[in-house]
Amino acid sequence: MIDLILEVLSWISILSGLFFMIVGTIGVVRMPDVYTRLHAAGMTDTMGAGLLLLGMCFQAGLTLVLVRLILIYVFLLFTSPISTHALASAALSGGVKPYTVPADRAREFNSLNGGQHS
Amino acid sequence: MLRALGLGAILFIFWLLLSGHYTDTLLIGLGLGSCGLVVGLAMRMDLVDHEGVPLQLGGRFWVYFPWLMKEIFIANVNVARVILNPKLPISPVVTHFRASQESDLGKTIYANSITLTPGTITTSIQGQDLEIHALTLKDIDGREEDQMNHRVSWVESGSRGNL
Question: Which of A93, B72, B87, B98 is 20 to 30 A away from residue B62, measured at CA?
Answer without folding.
Answer: B98
